[in-house]
User: Which sequence fits this backbone?
């Protein structure tokens, strides 16, 4: 009798399809579609008195799938649990084992960090039992979030508004955004001046004031007057020193989850949620012409920058054959990086599974955004294995003045060897320092040389408040503070937007009045929930559970006792918060009074401000500012069945106009119709929405 085929259970159909392609008919591969068991949605599901014992149930709608997996497991003597290689994946494997009647010690748990034939077959050879320390760490997080969410959220429903939520990490992130906004609102600009001098040389030497007055070249109005009175055009300055130093700039490390989220936001304009969705597709496998379904990148939830030796070898071969051996990072000086505490050393950074699979070869296989993200991952990884850029940085110091000596400095750079910058350069956050290596070369001057002053100007400036958070800068801050984990950042930001705690305006995250009210309430009655250091300390405790240094039940007990006392006191003390109604420009079709925004179980809707005399309500629509080119009605935001945003005429179904491009308030100078924002490469372009017009221009 033939031996039954081993069963491999993965999480998604895409991953199952990819693995089946290269394992062939020797194995049967099925997908669990993520978790099969979880805490019940309609109940608390945690027995606090019994050591926070969770009550797991089969997720609604998954009963048939569990039965199918059970039946398949009974027909074979080997079941491999091949869920993702992290805490969540380990917990899913454990839940699968429980559902299928497989004990943790008897489980055949396999994990791989890339979906390739070699990685999967090697994982099968090294199957292991389920790691209960990882499972316990995930259980602790899940139960802790349930304790906070299911006991604190109803309090917000009763005291503020239905449909709100609070969370251990979510609320700390919201406080960061609210505190930043309040810092901006309280900011008082201060005046200062900078002074620039142009000296006669070839090319003209531009130097900035550096002292002795003021700080860092900034002076007040009186000091600026003293300098400009002492040094004037026609006078001369003396070259005090010319210093040139060779410097090296090393490439950024390959992507971790959070650095990928940040760079994709800055460079490609992707939301964190969009980035993770596309990255998951690249990891699980896509149809590539001539190859079938293949996994294109390694596992996307990682905080490690480690790279496998085989990937380094392949990168070297590509770099040397494409750019030359001098571009390989070789044996010269290297930047030494230490992994942060808690980083899982078995994980790799995010990289292409096959370095030789150049992005250009995938143009006909991937859609536009998939290709853009793959190219970003590929370029970042290859650049990380390349030689540093080498440049000469020069500083020229000038001295002038009649009554007192004033110092001016000029900085310049000359690139001697481009190194990794031939391929890739990391983008910077708003407010980051200017790129030293990008400065223009300076004229060749010698110490003691005199230069005539061509021009001297003092410019007025005002200090600026800190910038509002973008998704990229928020992710960076959360990671630096040790709050949450990179894999949780996308759902956290999504929740803040969905709850109307935060709005995204021109890529900036701005808190709403509601967000401020919730933070104030939590800060007063539940200070630890929004305390940054406390939230980070809990993350550290969860890491220690994973390392078998702490009991997960003890972590929950230490948190819960003071939290329960705070909850009881808050419920008794907090009065109902009266939130002002948000008046819209919509007019009630029944009585003519303004419509206001209300909140119900299913989100926002419009209600007549004349309630209770008028009970008219209507669905909430988000206007874009654009006008339909076919009928003149407003263009509004709509969403497809898959959740993708598009824009359509408000008069639908009478008018069927739709577009994927976001309409704007700007009108076409050629025909007068509304224009929409379209992304072309890295450039935003305004295009006319009227069919046949064809006018477009670069967005300013």
Assistant:
């Amino acid at each position: 009798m033939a031996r039954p085929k081993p069963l491999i259970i993965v999480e998604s159909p895409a991953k199952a399809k990819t693995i089946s392609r290269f394992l062939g008919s020797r194995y049967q591969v099925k997908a669990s579609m993520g978790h099969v068991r979880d805490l019940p949605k309609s109940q608390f599901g945690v027995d606090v008195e019994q050591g926070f014992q969770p009550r797991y149930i089969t997720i609604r709608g998954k009963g048939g799938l569990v039965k199918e997996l059970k039946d398949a497991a009974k027909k074979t003597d080997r079941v491999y649990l091949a869920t993702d290689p992290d805490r969540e994946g380990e917990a899913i494997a454990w839940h699968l084992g429980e559902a299928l009647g497989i004990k943790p010690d008897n489980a055949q748990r396999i994990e791989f960090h890339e979906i390739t034939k070699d990685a999967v077959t090697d994982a099968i050879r090294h199957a292991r039992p389920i790691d209960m320390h990882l499972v316990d760490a995930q259980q602790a997080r899940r139960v802790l979030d349930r304790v906070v969410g299911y006991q604190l959220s109803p309090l917000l429903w009763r005291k503020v508004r239905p449909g709100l939520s609070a969370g251990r990490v979510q609320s700390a992130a919201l406080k960061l955004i609210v505190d930043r906004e309040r810092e901006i609102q309280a900011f008082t600009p201060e005046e200062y001046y900078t002074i620039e001098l142009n000296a006669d040389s070839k090319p003209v030497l531009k130097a900035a004031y550096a002292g002795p007055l003021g700080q860092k070249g900034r002076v007040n109005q009186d000091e600026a007057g003293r300098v400009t009175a002492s040094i004037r055009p026609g006078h001369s300055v003396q070259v005090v020193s010319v210093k040139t130093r060779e410097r090296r700039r090393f490439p950024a490390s390959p992507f971790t989850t959070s650095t990928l989220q940040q760079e994709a936001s800055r460079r490609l304009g992707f939301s964190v949620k969009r980035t993770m969705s596309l990255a998951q597709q690249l990891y699980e496998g896509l149809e590539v012409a001539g190859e079938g379904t293949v996994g294109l990148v390694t596992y996307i939830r990682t905080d490690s920058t480690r790279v496998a030796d085989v990937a380094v070898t392949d990168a070297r071969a590509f770099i040397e054959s494409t750019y030359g051996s001098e571009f390989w990072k070789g044996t010269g000086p290297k930047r030494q990086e230490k992994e942060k505490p808690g980083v899982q050393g078995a994980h790799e950074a995010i990289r292409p599974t096959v370095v030789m699979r150049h992005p250009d070869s995938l143009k006909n296989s991937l859609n536009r955004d998939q290709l853009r993200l793959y190219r970003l991952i590929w370029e970042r990884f290859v650049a990380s294995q390349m030689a540093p850029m080498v440049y000469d940085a020069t500083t020229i110091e000038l001295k002038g003045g009649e009554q007192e000596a004033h110092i001016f400095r000029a900085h310049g750079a000359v690139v001697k060897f481009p190194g990794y910058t031939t391929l890739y350069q990391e983008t910077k956050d708003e407010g980051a320092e200017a790129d030293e290596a990008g400065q223009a070369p300076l004229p060749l001057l010698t110490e003691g040389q005199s230069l005539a002053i061509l021009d001297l100007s003092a410019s007025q400036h005002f200090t600026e408040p800190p910038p509002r958070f973008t998704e990229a800068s928020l992710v960076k801050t959360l990671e630096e503070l040790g709050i949450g984990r990179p894999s949780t950042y996308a759902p956290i930001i999504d929740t803040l937007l969905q709850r109307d705690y935060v709005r995204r305006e021109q890529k900036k995250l701005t808190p709403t009045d509601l967000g401020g009210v919730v933070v104030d309430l939590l800060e007063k009655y539940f200070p630890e929930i929004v305390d940054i250091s406390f939230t980070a300390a809990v993350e550290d405790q969860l890491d220690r559970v994973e390392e078998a240094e702490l009991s997960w039940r003890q972590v929950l007990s230490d948190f819960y006792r003071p939290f329960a006392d705070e909850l009881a006191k808050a419920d008794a003390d907090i009065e109902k918060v009266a939130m002002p109604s948000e008046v819209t420009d919509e007019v009630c079709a029944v009585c003519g009074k303004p419509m206001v925004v209300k909140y119900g179980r299913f989100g926002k809707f419009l209600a007549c401000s004349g309630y209770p005399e008028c009970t008219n309500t209507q669905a909430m629509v988000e206007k874009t500012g654009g006008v339909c080119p076919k009928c003149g009605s407003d263009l509004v935001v709509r969403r497809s069945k898959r959740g993708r945003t598009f824009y359509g005429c408000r008069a639908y179904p009478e008018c069927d106009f739709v577009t994927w491009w976001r309409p704007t308030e700007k009108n076409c100078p050629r025909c007068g119709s509304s224009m929409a924002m379209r992304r072309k490469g890295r450039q935003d372009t305004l295009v006319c929405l009227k069919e046949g017009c064809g006018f477009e221009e670069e967005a300013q």
The chain has 16 helices and 30 strands. The mean pLDDT is 89. Residues 159-186+471-572 form a domain with the Topoisomerase I; domain 2 fold (CATH 1.10.460.10). The chain has five domains: 7-130, 159-186+471-572, 191-250+389-462, 257-384, 640-700.
